[in-house]
Design goal:
The chain is mostly beta strands. 13% of the residues lie in helices and 34% in strands. The chain has an 8-stranded antiparallel sheet, with helices on one face. A hairpin with a 7-residue loop joins strand 4 and strand 5. The two termini are 16 Å apart.
């Protein structure tokens, strides 16, 4: 949700997929156009036997240029990073700490995103990654 309380993405789990696939639809578009083409798809990589395997992301499916990236588990309980095809860091999410070093909680996260990248898309990807790994 945004700061006005409006839903940003509708996230659907695709059943009957072998590796588990999730799709995200931007909720600000009309519903007729929204269901035709998702804004992003997330699927597990081939190392699906591990519980927290990296996930492959295809974003920008409604445009002519698709964007491929990967969500990887990072050190820590609820930390992950999103990297592009070349391994460049796009965003990182980790548990928030106070100035004294105390971890604030399992659901209190801090997110650092590269400039000129959609923050709501990153939040949708982190939500899907958490759902896939049963952390949310």
């Amino acid at each position: 949700m945004d700061f006005r309380g409006q839903v940003l993405f509708t996230i659907l789990k695709k059943k009957y997929k072998l590796f588990g696939e999730w799709e995200g639809y931007r909720s600000t578009v009309t519903k007729a156009k929204n269901r035709i083409c998702p804004d992003f798809q997330v699927r597990r990589s081939l190392g699906f036997l591990r519980r927290e395997s990296p996930c492959e992301v295809v974003a920008g499916l409604d445009k002519t240029q698709k964007f491929h990236c990967k969500i990887e588990k990072w050190n820590g309980k609820a930390a992950c990073k999103i990297v592009d095809k070349l391994g460049g860091l796009i965003a990182e999410v980790k548990r928030k700490r106070s100035t004294g070093g105390v971890i604030l909680g399992d659901d209190v996260l801090t997110m650092v995103v590269e400039p000129h990248f959609d923050h709501s898309l990153v939040m949708g990807l982190v939500t899907v990654f958490s759902l896939m790994n049963r952390r949310m």
